[in-house]
Amino acid sequence: MLSLGARTLRAGSGPRGPSVVVLLPQRVGTCATTNSRRWRTALGITAAYMFWRWLRVPTWTGAFFSGVLLGAALLTKLTWIIVLALWPMLWLVCRQPWRRNTGSPARPAEIAQLALILAAALYTLNAGYGFEGSLTRLGQYQFVSQSLGGNVGPRHDAPRGNRFAGTWLGALPVPLPKNYVLGIDLQKRDFERGFWSYLRGQWRYGGWWYYYLYGLAVKVPLGTWALAIAAVLASLGRMPFRPPLARRNCASGACGGGARAGEFADRVQPPSALCAAHVPFRLRLDEQGCPSLGIGPAQAPKGGCRGRDLVR
Known about the structure:
The protein is mostly helical. It has one domain. Helices cover 53% and strands 3% of the residues. It is built from 15 helices and 2 strands. Strands 1-2 form a two-stranded antiparallel sheet. Strand 1 (196-199) and strand 2 (202-205) form a beta hairpin. Helix 5 (60-76) packs parallel to helix 7. The longest helix is centred in the N-terminal third of the chain and has 26 residues, at 31-56. It starts with a helix and ends with a helix.
């Protein structure tokens, strides 16, 4: 799938970029403990690729498979849930229905297909849990985190609560499995308690802002850094000169015409906004393999490099 996405986006690396992703020493050495992370990353990339294809050529079949793949990704990782809000926003940015003569027209059928994507994703997610506790009212939950439970403590024996009980939000049904919602609440409670982090012989409660930057510098092999630098230099060397006006036109979509969602690989990983401490670097690096797609000499498309190719 990584190789297919690279060829479709004309990244030029073909199978070389995915080979670097798969053969990183961090992955080979920890494959027994981080194998599940590869599955959920692969499912997320596949779902994002299908959604990007649907943005370019909206069809009912593409919408259905995009939704099913998104539901499968939701079953593998909780943080993929932000995609339910991210994809509609990406569609709005690409279509811009509030402006005339800008972007692609938003047809009513396309809006219905977007609704099908979300419905298929939620149905697949609930089916994976056997529809256990689906559509439970928000006010009927008992939460343990302060964010959802209100005035509750972070201890394991803290009383449960629900800040939405007695409000109009509490009467709304939640289109998610009950244990899925409680899992989000439990993980939120764990992050509210905080974790100890270790770096260079020092323990700290909370961590360091440069933790992952330092990890990249000392954990990534020198050969991988050399390939990445060579890929950047090769891309800069083959980039054609364009006057500033042409660059502005291409940046605004005037020379592209298509949806500007071709950079799906840069956005496919959801930000771990819930993380308040540093996960071991080898685990975090295993989820962030997409940037390695660009490793490899960039190749210009046949017939020269045109403005719309750069936009895509």
